[in-house]
Input
Amino acid sequence: MGDKDVINLIWLLLMASGIIYAGINGRIEVVTASAISAARNAVELSINLIGVMCLWLGIMKIAELSGLIKLISYVLSPIVVCLFPSVPKHHPAMGAIIMTISANMLGLGNAVTPLGIKAMQQLQTLNPRKDTATPAMCTLLALCTTGFTLVPATIIALRSAAGSTNPTEIVGSTLIVSLIATLLVLIVDRACRAFWK
Output
């Protein structure tokens, strides 16, 4: 049984237990009403989110064309070289890592995944043991998981689409929390490298 089958089984059990529980309590109509309401809310949220995401992606495209992304990459380059000493400076993996971290900093969660996969593929070309993750891969995974964010564009878009009166009020707290999480994960990463060297 694969991972997909297990996830499907879990969803089936959750839905079946909810329907059975509603049936036992004589409130089976609540299941139908909730399903229809949730489907309607999902469609409304998606339509609202499309507009906001188009706006942010447009802004990011302007930032890319104006050279802002290249500037961020240039500023990040010395830091990334220190964080990934095993990766040659001019290897394609380094560029992919910088783009992944830049997208994370700009809060583009939907763009980070394909960039992160590309970076991992490039790091795999430097991996002498193909069945084991390298320290650089572990560091990149840790950085993507904590995701230091300057502008949480995706979260702002979700809050705006959900009708928040002040969708940008989370910027300060997101910046502080993501910075602390990133610093902690880097400390743990280095400690683990030193301990298991």
